[in-house]
Amino acid sequence: MLSQEDLEAWCNHRQLSSTTRQLITDIRTSDPSRAAQGNYGNVCGDYCSEKMGKTIQFESHRGELAHIIDNLEHSKAVLEFYDQPPKIELIYLSKNGKKVRTGHTPDFFVIETNWAGWEEFKPIDELVQKAEEQPNRYVQDAEGNWDCPPGREYAQKYGLDYRVRTSAELHPIRLRNWTWLEPYFQTSPPPFDSPIFLTILTQVQAQPGLTYAQLLLSIEDIDPDHLNWLIARECIFINFNIASLAEHDQVQVFISEELAIVSEKIVLSSPTVPSSDGFSTLNVDIGTTLSWDGEYWEITNPGTDRVYLTRHDGKTTSLPNAEFYRFFETGHITGLNQITESTIDTTIQDLLNRARSKDIEIANQRYDLIQPYIQENTLPITKVNRSIRRWRDNYLEAEKLYGQGNGYVGLLPRHLDKGHHEKLEPGLVDYMKQYIDDHYFTPTNRRASTVYREFKEACQSLDPPFNPPSDRTFRFYIQGRTNYELIKARLGSRVAKQSKPFYSTKGFPRNGDLPWECVHIDHTPLDVDLVSSLISLATCNTSSAITLDNFDLGTCWATFMVDGYSKRILAVYLSFEKPSYRSCMMVMRQCVRRFKRLPQTIITDNGKEFHSIYFKQLLAYYKCNHKYRPPGEPRYGNPVERVFGTTNTLFVHELKGNRQILKNNRQVTKSVNPKTHAVWTLGEFYQVLEYWTDEIYDRREHSSLGQNPRSSYEIGIALGGRREMRRILYDETFKILTLPSPAQNDSRIVQPGKGIKINNIYYWCNDFRDPEIEKTTVDVKIDPFNVCLAYAYVRGHWRECTSNYYQFLQGRTEKELKVLSADLRQRKAGHAKRVEISDKELVEHLQSTQAMEGVLLQQRLQALENRTVLDLIEGKPLPQLKTLQTIDVTATIQKDKSLDSSAQDDNSPSKNLQFYGEF
Q1: CATH number of the domain at 428-499, please?
Q2: What is the CATH number of domain 4-170?
Q3: What biological-process terms (Gene Ontology) are attached (predicted)?
């Protein structure tokens, strides 16, 4: 970002007025005027900008995010950019000539070296539609550039500018390369005078044009990280527009940009230029005719530096060779022969697509029969039957039409073209389609036969009347519409999403080019009933009130972190609590504990836990981008959603106490109820789930990969590098950073002799004795899993603070205190509108008998079981019950009516232990 001195110098250079300077200052110092929304099927989120030193919002990851990365973040001309600046006023005439005055929030405010103003980003399709609706707001000039006259008029009042950026400016290959190298821009590089870097530079200088793959093979001890560092820091050069770094054998490496341009000139001076797909070619020679932006041009001079072109009206222009090549590569320039070949290929492909398997078999038989006569080139054939002569003629005719080698399509039988085809009157088809839309594609869900019967009557009532088609033709036009359109119109968008066509990524890999590039986090309940351990019951001191209900704790929630590229499960966390910021925090901890890193981009749904300030702060601190899936679009989270189904189907449903049978709840009897057969505690279940994810799922072949997730992950790391700059130590500092701040405020005043007060509880540490610290404000964090501890930021370090009720709050969770506080408020409420609870009253309620009953007891048991998962994540073993005398099971287990008579008569400790799942 610009310093105040640099900003002043820039404003002086631009000779901006004081009003404009104040406007720019307001934009720079204000927060975004609104939050990015994902209500229209778009993927919104936050991008960690290294240039701006903060997160930047975007409302479309294939639009605005791509524009941020490609045109703003890595553009040397751009000095600063701000998302969602304050509203500006646009005044223009509507389509019917009325004056419109509206407030508009541009997408960005951009400060460049020689330009400043507002930017609005739109996809081309949306711009075309809006230009029809608002022709005076969005205008396209003769050269295809888009403009917003009312926006430019507003900006000119301040000596600034306004421009419309479109998706046509984006380059998918270049964007993939920026994304590939993103981690290397976010940290300081290693010293480039080490032997390995010097060896690479020497090799590239000696052999310009070597590919990325060739360099990796030709130098010992080289790692992709070394090359990525040199490319990111511009010590060596690649053309970002030609090939993606994920395709090592296609990327050529040069010591400088000048040598790369010389290499491109040599390629352009050759007789043909291959396109990026490797199929179409363009002759770069005098007299070659080509199509450029819908106009025909002729090459008049293919020079060494520029290509000179003449239009049909005599206008002459020239393009640099590199620019000419780029236009051809992106499809803006096409040769006339390329257009013809493309049309022919499409026709051939249509004929092959229409052919059935039986048609292919017949064509193969015909080809075998005519093969001798084609090779001998015998004309005419007089000693063979008429069928062979006809097939041979069809083959030769197809070669004339579609080119040499394409005669095979002439042998395909065209049975589908045979028979009587009903001919409809002019206008009848349009009338029938409209009638189907109005009467069949409706939420009423009418029968097709009824709609057709009314359609016939409607045709006869017209003047002049239509001759209605047959019922089969009517149904044919219904079936011609996509299944998604039909279901959406008749059953609603939520049901239709299951049959919605997949979104085309248009050159972007759906799940990234590397492991850790796109990682999904989501929650799901697992279909298994879990029980409480005897240790938890002993801790709660419930020996006088143990029943079967005390043991059953219900289902648990699982939080998965899944890598989109390799489909590997990176981390999993289990808890009895519903999804919250605590689940997010723990799955991030588990990920760092296992792999010592966090993802480059995290993709989540729109749950409130993913919108929490703690989660966003953690991602921003470790420079993780964040994307939100569109609401109600589970397919955007396909990798993690598929893991949900696989985990339940292949693992959970094989365990005792699984809840499959509850799908038919009314037919479930006590003898088969999952509660009766539940044996797993949360800690034991977490252990076997981790084993299944790491040793079974991880080594099992994934159908979409053709290999197992672990192999895919390891190959991806070998191709892209280990990226040690993303390494995160799993230490106390990281743990504290994952802790939340109090809900109301993240700072507290140090009160002399008492410490800091959080949730009506005082916390103290010895640093608070310092008179310089007393009565000052310090940042604080709390441990949601152990509320007897808090942390205060004192003198540049996080200090642990303990509660004055440490012995009573030890091991208690934030969730427990909320449930207990709500229960205590309800008991004290009476007629008072607001009830205040002191820390002493809360602790007394913790020790009361009411806290060991009903919901409060179940919450306590669940919290104790959750603690076992936290201990396992920290590497601690499960606690073991050393002696049965800790809790006298035989004397305290009450006779439950749900037990059968044999179980009631047998009170042996071993059987009771086995029944309740302790093993």
Answers
A1: 1.10.10
A2: 3.40.1350.10
A3: DNA integration
